[in-house]
Each structure stands twice: as C-alpha cells, then as structure tokens.
User: Fold this.
Amino acid sequence: MATMFSPALHRQRHQFVIDFVNLNKPKKVLDLGCSECRLLKTLKFHRDIELLAGLDINGAKVKKHMHKLAPVSTDYLQPSYDQLRIELYQGSVTQKDSRLRGFDLVTSIELIEHLSLADVELFSAVVFGYMTPVAVIVSTPNSEFNLLLPGVSGFRHIDHKFEWTRAEFRSWALKVCLDYGYEVEFTGVGQAPQEQQDSVGFCSQIGVFQRLGGRNGSNALLDDEAEDVFSYTLLYSVNYPSLRDNNMLRKVLVSEVLGSAANLMSRWLEEKTTGNGDGAVPLCQTEGGGEEFLSELCMEMEEQQTVFSLVCTRRYVSVPLAVLWSCCPKVSELSGSVGNLRHLLMGNPDIKLNQDSSAVLITHQEQDQEEEGVDSDVEESGYAEASHYSHNAEQEEEWEANV
Ligand code: SAM
Assistant:
C-alpha cells in the first residue's frame, strides 16, 4: 500500500495534523495511540506547542521509541525562549485520567479501528465528554477505498476490529457532536484516481471536530468528573531547556559574558601593546581603524558624552558591563538592559564583579612593566574599582517578562 501513495499515506496523515497545527497554533497537544512517537517527534519542532503528550496502551512500544523525544545537545547549548514539556503515558483511551483534560488539540490517527465498537463508545465519552479538548482530529480507514488496494481482502490490518464506510464514520461522528457539543468537518488523505474519487473517497477518512463555542465553549464538569483521576502510568516526561527558566538564562548569559569579555580583553590588550598602552585607554580608540563595531560604538558614546574604558590591573582587566552590553548583541538580547545584566550576574560564583558591580573582572596573565603603576590602589585589593564610566544613556528598562 505504501507504494500507492507519494508521500506515503502515514506521512500524509501526519502532514494533515501539522498543517492544522500551523494554522491553529494549539499550545497543548495530545496524541492518542502515539505508538512509535513519530507524530510527536515532528510536532516537538512547533514553537507554539508548550505541552506535548502521548498516550498508548502499549507501554513497551512507547518505551522503545521515547528517546526520540529527548532534548539534544543543541537544545541545551542554544536554548530559545520557547517552552516545551513532553509527557508520555501508558493507558487506554477507554479510561479517564484528569491529567489529559483541557488540551487544545487531541489527535487520534488510525486508532479507533483497533477498538471494539463498545470501546469506541467509551472512547467517545472519554475524549469528547471528559477530556473536552477544543479540537479533535480522528482518522480511520475508509472501507470503500479497499477495492483499490492491491492484495487487500477483508480488513487492512489483522488487528482492526472494523473498517467503516464514509456513511458509517459520518453517522458515528454526528452522534458524537450531538452528545458532546461539537461540530465536525469531513475530509481525508490518500486520493483515488480522478475518475474514482467521488465513488470511493479518500483512503484515510478524517473528521475534524471543533468544540461548540471554541476555547470559551461550555466545559461544565459533573461533580465526580471534577476530581483528580489517575489511571495512566507516566512513562516519560521532560522539560526542554528554555531561556524563560531563570537558571538557564543565567547560565547562558554567564557563558556569553565570559566569552565576550575575554574577547574584548584580548583585543584591547593587543591594541594597547601596539599603541595606546596607558592602562586606561577608552575602548573606542581605534587608531589604525579596522574594528568597525568599535568605531560605531565610539560615535555613539561621543553623542552621549559617555566614557567607557577597559582598565588593566596586574591581575585583572575590568570590562564595564555597559561596554559588554553595547558591544555584544547576544548579551544585550539576553539581559534587556545594563541594569538587568548587573542583576543577573551579581552573586554568580563564576563571575567576578568590581566593587560597585559595574564591571566584570577578567583574570589575565601579568603584563610587562609598562602596566605597573596603573591603578595602584586597585592592585592592592586585587580587583577593586578598575574602570570608570558615566552612563547617562543607560536605559534602565523594566525587567521584561520574556527575559
Ligand atoms: N497513531 C499512530 C501513527 O499515526 O503513526 C499509529 C497508530 S497504530 C496503527 C495504533 C495504536 O493504537 C497502537 O500503537 C496501539 O497500541 C494503540 N492502541 C490500541 N488500543 C488502544 C487503547 N485502547 N488505548 C490507547 N492506545 C491504543
């Protein structure tokens, strides 16, 4: 059957869900009968999804494939502001579990035909009557198409308990809508040749259900349904690293600050040894040119009558936070303002700040004699105030929610 369709039929079914997700941007998505977690694996790349859950009665199969959903090293090295939690459960769609209520989208791709008709009734009650998601996508084989499938006599799969015609699917779906307050549209994937499309329909028929009233639709709970019920077993859960997690934000910021400060220090020391070696050279002095961003910074600072300096002591080079913030886009993006930058770095064991916390102190190899005498009072304490700047242009923005 796979050779009959291009792309393969299972891909077309998953693509149908992905297109729906792109259009409707659900935040909480649950895949029933998630099997080898293939659909979940594709969905985890969708930025709008914050909670992605899967349920299957076959826990061994889920366990075998759940590693596909684990964060990879780049998720840790370059976390984004997106938030994603993944949860996988073992359990039956015929049973209630309050952890899977209130989702924006529930998908049931080629699952219901594996249930007895009595269990399909329970499925309807659990999914539409108890979980009450905003939208449900149900796909199931269309038996009318079977005559076009080479080698298929009877059901398409040995485990199928039934395969419905379009009319049978329609009748079940419309009853669900009446019973539980949904509306449905019918479509499908896997097209027949043009001249047979009307007579046999799609290979996989799909119902897209929307709760009446959408997100704000009635979701009244009966008393016993309001209680927590846990009938599924949680097999796997993971929170993806996110910059909205303050610890993660700090970690990334610290590594960015240390890298950028070391970079600025080495450029500045190089500049100093090739020319301006007075130990308090404004960063923007770029005699000989070459460093475009430094020149730009210089102009900006002149306008604002601001003086920023890297200053060198015997043990440290002091890199003002204002310089870091202005020179390093990632640092400014992560912190939002110089004030926030200071706040995020203070107390961090990997960062040494000067006395008034206006500069990062970066250890460097002791320089040659020409540096002696610079900030001698500073050298006594090792890392006292070692730079000066006025920062009348510093934008002390409010702490932004997305930082
Ligand atoms: N949805 C998958 C996809 O799109 O790739 C394929 C589904 S596979 C054909 C059917 C899945 O339903 C199997 O993994 C099976 O274990 C699961 N299943 C069968 N009965 C179930 C039940 N009562 N509750 C939950 N999952 C069930």
In short: The chain has a mean pLDDT of 83.
